[in-house]
Amino acid sequence: MPKIILKSPEEIAIAAEGGEILGRIISEVLKRVRPGLNTLEINDWIEEKVIKSGAEPSFKLVPRYHWASCVGTNDEVVHSIPRKDRIIREGDLLKIDAGVFWKGFHTDASWTVIVQTANSKQQIAKSRFLDAGKEALEKAIEAARPGNRIGNISLAIQQTIEKAGYRPVKVLTGHGIGRRLHEEPLIPCILKGSLETTELLLPGMLLAIEVIYNQGKAEVVMEDDGWTISTKDGKMSGLFEETIAVGENGPLTLTRVGGFLC
């Protein structure tokens, strides 16, 4: 098994401070989104807010990535480069993924919303799609308890998404997080192999749990920019992520994007 770095209560407290900063920023930006904006403007808001908070944008510490966030729409799955020429339109699915580096620790979170639309039929179908992702994230976080395994988290995502009639993306995962943005263990959106062979969950684990799923087929493709990953069939994709700590008595959500949006 790969090495998993457990965090002390003091380190988790620091990560929780960064998580609160990140959760508030993502929720504030999502509430400002409207048709006519471009995705680079959204990124610039995020970067400005992160810097004003005293933190650093985690994603700008990734080699060769020059933006504070990933801002995608519709069939874009993850790692979408913010662009001045990508204009947000009414009814779009908008995905914001960002991280902050605070006092030596990273936190990472993502959320998907529908940009305001007057089309009620479109709204209902897309809301149902997003509700499945939010439910899957809630169940995945609930499964992040000492004595369970990474596979319990994966299975919670897979079963919830498939029951709703959608497909988890097989080749992309959540991850451990801490002093590095991406640490062990990987957290697939499907159970791979037997549950008993996946890593045991222990107090002190810091995890970025990601629900990555598609309306249509699970297959994805890399775009020509070398970063953006989209659905192969052009159908819509959803993304929900929170950073959590595995505590002695259960999970503690550090970023709480969903809570701030309520």
Characterise the protein shown here.
- By secondary structure, this protein is an alpha+beta fold.
- The protein has a single domain, classed as Creatine Amidinohydrolase (Alpha-Beta Complex), CATH 3.90.230.10.
- The protein is built from five helices and 13 strands.
- Strands 6, 7, 8, 9, 12 and 13 form a six-stranded antiparallel sheet that branches. Strands 1, 2, 4 and 5 form a four-stranded antiparallel sheet that branches.
- A hairpin with a 2-residue loop joins strand 4 and strand 5.
- The longest helix is centred in the N-terminal third of the chain and has 24 residues.
- The protein is globular.
- The termini are far apart.
- The mean pLDDT is 96.
Key descriptive features of the protein:
262 residues, alpha+beta, Creatine Amidinohydrolase, 6-stranded antiparallel beta sheet, 4-stranded antiparallel beta sheet, globular
Within CATH, the superfamily carries the name: Creatinase/methionine aminopeptidase superfamily
- Calculate the terminal CA-CA distance, rounded to whole Å: 39 Å
**Relative helix content:** 25-40%
Strand tally: 13
Just give the CATH class.
Alpha Beta
Radius of gyration: 17 Å
**What percent strand?**
25-35%
Compact summary:
It contains 5 helices and 13 strands.
Give the SSE layout.
Layout: H1 9-32, H2 39-53, E1 56-57, E2 69-73, E3 76-78, E4 93-102, E5 105-114, H3 120-142, H4 150-163, E6 167-168, E7 173-176, E8 183-188, E9 206-214, E10 220-222, E11 229-231, E12 237-247, E13 250-253, H5 257-261
Antiparallel strand pairs: 1-4, 2-4, 3-11, 4-5, 6-9, 7-8, 7-9, 9-12, 10-11, 12-13
Helix pairs in contact: 1-2, 3-4
